[in-house]
Amino acid sequence: MITRDDLTGLILAGGQGRRMGGRDKGLEPFAGRPLVAHVHERLAGRVAEVLINANRNAEAYAPLADRVIQDAEGGFQGPLMGIYSGLRAAITPWLLVVPCDSPALPHDLVDRLVAGIGECDIAVAFDGERLHPVVALIRTALAEDLASSLADGERKIDRWYARHAWCRVDVSDCPDAFANLNTDDEKRRLERALSEGNSNRGGKKESLSP
């Protein structure tokens, strides 16, 4: 049984925000607060510690994290490097990963992933149409294996997951909750939809084949 004390939450906010003009996406305002604040709500009180993976503006992220961590290696090498950095920094057996740009994630996301992982080492959210590789529960003992994969040049999350026992966790009852915001237009659309009591699917996530 995975308990709260077994879990570290990791919010990935280490990207360059290229499609938002190079702005720090996690700090972008959304419904009156930074995007990352909405995501933090989904983790706070449900995990032993919340980490934010950020490669700039650490002082701005600090109030919303127990710890702010940078990528283990520089150069903005992508989300897999962010995941590795979280696995390495966590002091719990499990790391629950979420992106900073999905402000409508379900409030019971932690419970859903914990309930769905079974005997696997990795559980990935599946909305009925696509997998969301950066919404995942990962055993932190995999850190060394990921370090080796990164050293070999691997940067694709799906290919690294495929090396291990992983499973889908069905979240098809609320697919719109996994909308991720990559552009100003997507952000405005979701803000408008949520203000009207609805939600709107964001940009495509990376697919993952079993």
Automatic annotation (TrEMBL):
Q: Where is the MobA-like NTP transferase domain?
A: 9-163
Instruction: List the subcellular locations.
Output: Cytoplasm
| Reaction catalysis annotation | Mo-molybdopterin + GTP + H(+) = Mo-molybdopterin guanine dinucleotide + diphosphate
Q: Where does Mg(2+) bind?
A: 101
Annotated residues for binding of GTP: 12-14, 25, 53, 71, 101
- Entry EC no(s): 2.7.7.77
UniProtKB keywords: Cytoplasm, GTP-binding, Magnesium, Metal-binding, Molybdenum cofactor biosynthesis, Nucleotide-binding, Nucleotidyltransferase, Transferase
Show the segment(s) annotated as Disordered. Answer: 190-210
Q: What does this protein do?
A: Transfers a GMP moiety from GTP to Mo-molybdopterin (Mo-MPT) cofactor (Moco or molybdenum cofactor) to form Mo-molybdopterin guanine dinucleotide (Mo-MGD) cofactor.
Quaternary assembly: Monomer.
How does the record comment on the protein's domains?
The N-terminal domain determines nucleotide recognition and specific binding, while the C-terminal domain determines the specific binding to the target protein.
Name under which the protein is recorded: Molybdenum cofactor guanylyltransferase
Q: What is the lineage of its organism?
A: Bacteria, Pseudomonadati, Pseudomonadota, Gammaproteobacteria, Oceanospirillales
